[in-house]
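User: quick one, fold this
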Amino acid sequence: YQRRVHGGEKLLNSVSILDIDTGVWEKPSIDGSPPAPRYRHTCVVYDKKMYLFGGKEESEYFNDVYTLDLEVVTLRLFAAMWLIKNKVDLDGQGLPDSLITWMRTTLCASKAE
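Assistant:
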């Protein structure tokens, strides 16, 4: 989850993964409801899961926990990259439209650069 500052503060609740070898950031497809945007939260990775606890948004303090299964996210990302690398017809695979759109806009765009 990210907090970015561009001429002011904007809290985000998105997930990005950095490929250390290429220096390219990817935005994986995530299931479920994301946590509210926040900062001053704690994240811990344990047993292939990332746990997010608490945080703050303006005057509101959070006392909640979210879990992100990193193995599932990684597996989806590698599968998507393999499909694109091998030029598999994405429309004929029974994949959710949101995943196909993400693969085309994120992965295909980064491969073209």
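User: anything notable?
Assistant: The mean pLDDT is 75.
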